[in-house]
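note to self — DONT lose this again. spent like an hour looking for the file last time. sequence + predicted structure for the chain T wanted, 336 res
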Amino acid sequence: PAKRYRGAQWNQAFGLMCMLSAWQVFGDQKYLNAAQLTVREMRTLQIFNPFMPEHYGAIREQSAKCCCCYVRDSLSGAWGFLEYYRVSGQEEFLQRAILWGEWFLKYGMDETGWPLWGVQLDKYLSETEKPQMCNDMHGSFQGGCLNFFYHLYKETGDKKWVGSFFEHIADYFCTNIQQQDGFFRTIEKATGEVPPDDPQNGHHRGNDDLGSLGLLCAYRVYPKKLYVNTVNRFLSAVFAKQLPDGHFETSCAAIPVILNTIKEAGNLLTTDISQDAVEKALNALIQRQFPANDDPLFAGALNETNIGAACCRSTSYALLYLLKEFGGDNRFLAGK
């Protein structure tokens, strides 16, 4: 039997967006019902404990008993609340997103203004409970946080959410996280150097974890050529490394992330990317889909690294992109 792993808050958030988009495109009530069940579960992860005032509004990683959160994952949970508010109009979920944002401004960044890798929320009961926390590094995946704060600003009209901290993250992402070859890489905080061993096992190369999309958002507030140039350099780098079968790397999660960035960039895209290269990537993505007659746990999902395992990351990114490109729902993973 297939092994199952409990989804973290970011899994639930992107799954939530997928269900909301599927409901819009297909009009089937079951997708809305699934979204409502998901957001009910997500509510249990946010901390409103009066005995934990320093973590008020934070979102735990996997369950109400979880002792920590990865900050970027937690942000994605808040992003899910924000998107649910946009569709449902229920003020509670906008307030939940704002409360998370307030927690982030107080406790989510290090002394340099870069988002922390993770935060301990409760005492660990044993050494085995401690997850990998690389707060001595600046994770390349943090560039994607710009998306959430930009859209929170759009919903509230409060420029605080795109203030100096936001501009600093966007600038640093371009000048420190992007490397000479155009790719984004995690660096050591103390030295600014790329560590010899990638703590993310190479999962954030072609899949920039929506960082380029975040720069498109930042450009709407601070129209710096730096941001657009960085996105174009990244896209040039990934297509220069595209494999003959259309993939960019072992994980197919990179494909929908890259194709979505191209779509959202619009006329800001100056990199010469052939339609043939785009179609090869799209075909490669579709080839990774488990058949409909497969095990119900897999049917329709994507074989992320081609070893017979499905992950919410690639499946959600792909579904959101496909529903945008072929279903006309442009509300999610938007760069403007």
